[in-house]
Amino acid sequence: MITHTTRGCFISLEGLDGAGKSTHVPWLVDQLKARGLPVLCTREPGGTPLGEQLRQMLLETSMHLKTETLLMFAARCEHVHAVILPALDAGQWVVCDRFTDASYAYQGGGRQLGESAVHALEQWAIPGIEPDRTWLFDVPLEVARERLTRSRQLDRFEQEGEAFFQRTRQAYHQRVQQQPQRFHLVDSTLPIEVVRARLTTEIDALVHRHGSNHNSESP
Ligand code: TYD
């Protein structure tokens, strides 16, 4: 008899620094676990010992834009092959705090590297690997900046100016327009309970759909 493990579902969370994404990551993990699902929670840049070292450099050390982009993808390549794919293959649901959309938004948009360079690296390093569902936590720039500056010491990205974050937000919105079926845009200006009520509906639909996708797969 051949046994099949259900492939897990890959969810990423995105948004500007200060958009509120990090508040919802542990909550989402708890929601999935409460539905009996095995969950792996991870983040980018990071998620592996090598990736976490790269993260520290990326957040602290100033470097050429292309170096920054290559290091983001180096961390991501390691993360995908050592952690994300094995977890999905083992049937785990993977919740990832940022993924490739952040490179399109921050390096492609914010830093003005452009979409095609990010796309080329994506195609080369991690072809065909993208989340099943991406939640984009969206707030106007002023709200994100206000939330951010009251929290703690700012890293290299968080210290960027308004124009950088405008371009980053715009690039995120462009991703949503290009792939509306993958993205779920979350109005993160709403009170947390309202956001969570909406997300609960979204989680239930996702769990339902992912389950039925699997059930309809031929052995
Ligand atoms: P973030 O998850 O916001 O860290 P924290 O919540 O601990 O501040 O991510 C760190 C920074 O990395 C963030 O400012 C965005 C940036 N980043 C990129 O510029 N490109 C990428 O591809 C990724 C994954 C992150």
Write the layout of secondary structure elements.
Layout: E1 10-15, H1 21-34, E2 39-43, H2 49-60, H3 65-89, E3 93-97, H4 100-110, H5 115-125, E4 133-138, H6 141-149, H7 162-178, E5 183-187, H8 192-216
Parallel strand pairs: 1-3, 1-4, 2-3, 4-5
Bound molecules: thymidine-5'-diphosphate.
The CATH class is Alpha Beta
Bound ligand species = thymidine-5'-diphosphate
**How many H/I helical runs?**
8
Output the radius of gyration: 17 Å
The CATH level-2 architecture is identified as 3-Layer(aba) Sandwich
> Going across the major beta sheet, what is the strand order?
2-3-1-4-5
β-strand amount: 5-15%
| Termini Cα gap | 11 Å
Helix share of residues?
A: 55-70%
Number of beta-strand segments: 5
Assign the CATH topology: Rossmann fold
**Net shape:** globular
In terms of per-residue confidence, which ranges show pLDDT below 50 for 5 or more consecutive residues? 215-219
Instruction: Report the major sheet.
Output: 5 strands, parallel
For the record, what is the CATH homologous superfamily label?
A: P-loop containing nucleotide triphosphate hydrolases
Mean pLDDT: 93
What is the succession of H and E elements? EHEHHEHHEHHEH
Query: Which structural class matches the secondary elements?
Result: alpha/beta
How many domains in all?
1
Account of the protein in words:
This protein has one domain (10-211): P-loop containing nucleotide triphosphate hydrolases (Rossmann fold, 3-Layer(aba) Sandwich). It is built from 8 helices and 5 strands, in the order βαβααβααβααβα. The protein has helices spanning 21-34, 49-60, 65-89, 100-110, 115-125, 141-149, 162-178, 192-216; strands at residues 10-15, 39-43, 93-97, 133-138, 183-187. The relative contact order is 0.19. The chain is globular. The model is unreliable at 215-219 (pLDDT under 50). It has a 5-stranded parallel β-sheet with strand order 2-3-1-4-5, sandwiched between helices. The chain starts with 9 loop residues before the first strand and ends with a helix. The chain is α/β, with parallel strands linked by helices and 219 residues long. It binds thymidine-5'-diphosphate.
